[in-house]
Amino acid sequence: SSGINAEYGECQSYRLTMEDPVSMAYISRHIASVKQHFTQRPGLRPFGLSALIVGFDYDGSAHLYQTDPSGTFHEWKANAIGRNGKTVREFLEKHYTDEIAASDEACSKLTVRALLEVVQSGGKNIELAVMRRGKPLEILDTKTVEKLVEVTEAERDAEAEAKKKAAGKS
C-alpha cells in the first residue's frame, strides 16, 4: 500500500536527519497527522478508519498505539477496535495484567478469551498474530488457534464451575 511505503520513507528520512531510529510514538503521531490532514483538507478523501500500530522502540520496549481519522492517537497496553471493540476492550481492561503480558501463552489465552466474548463460532473466525522483538510477525495457523480456543474454553468452564460450587457452599 502507498500509505505504508510513505511511512517507510518517513522512517528513513527521520533516521537520516536525526541519526536515531524512529520511535513508535513519533511514527504513530505522524500517521495520525496524515490521517487528520486528509480528513480536514477539502477535496481529499478522508481515511475514515482507526488503526492499531504495534512495534518496538530501539530500546526494546513494546508499544501499541491507536490512531483515529480525527488525527488523535493514544497508547494502550491492550486494545481492540472495530465492531464489538468496546466489549472486547472492556474485557481486556478488566482482565489484563502485566504478569499476563509477560507470558506469550497467557497473553494468547487472554486474547482468545476476549475475542470469544464477541465471536460465536469458536476458533473458525479468529486470527491471531504474535509480534516478538527481533522476529517477524507470526500469524498463528488455524490448528494452533483452535487448540488455544479449546484450552481457553475448558479453563473458562472450569472457573465457572468453581464459582457455582463456591456460591452453593455459601
Give a written overview of the molecule:
This protein is mainly alpha-helical. 53% of the residues lie in helices and 12% in strands. The chain has six helices and five strands; from the N terminus they run ααβββαααββα. Helix 3 (85-95) packs across helix 5.
Q: What sort of overall outline do the alpha carbons produce when their principal axes are compared? A: elongated
Could you spell the SSE succession in H and E letters? Answer: HHEEEHHHEEH
Number of helices: 6
Fraction of helical residues: 40-55%
Regarding quaternary structure, how should these chains be classified? single chain
Mean pLDDT: 90
How large is the radius of gyration? 19 Å
What portion of the residues fall into strands of 2 or more residues?
5-15%
Strand tally: 5
N- and C-termini, Cα separation: 59 Å
Report the biggest beta sheet as strand number plus sense, adding barrel if it closes: 3 strands, antiparallel
- Stretches where pLDDT is under 50 for at least 5 consecutive residues are none
Strand order of the largest sheet: 1-2-3
* Helix/strand class: mainly alpha
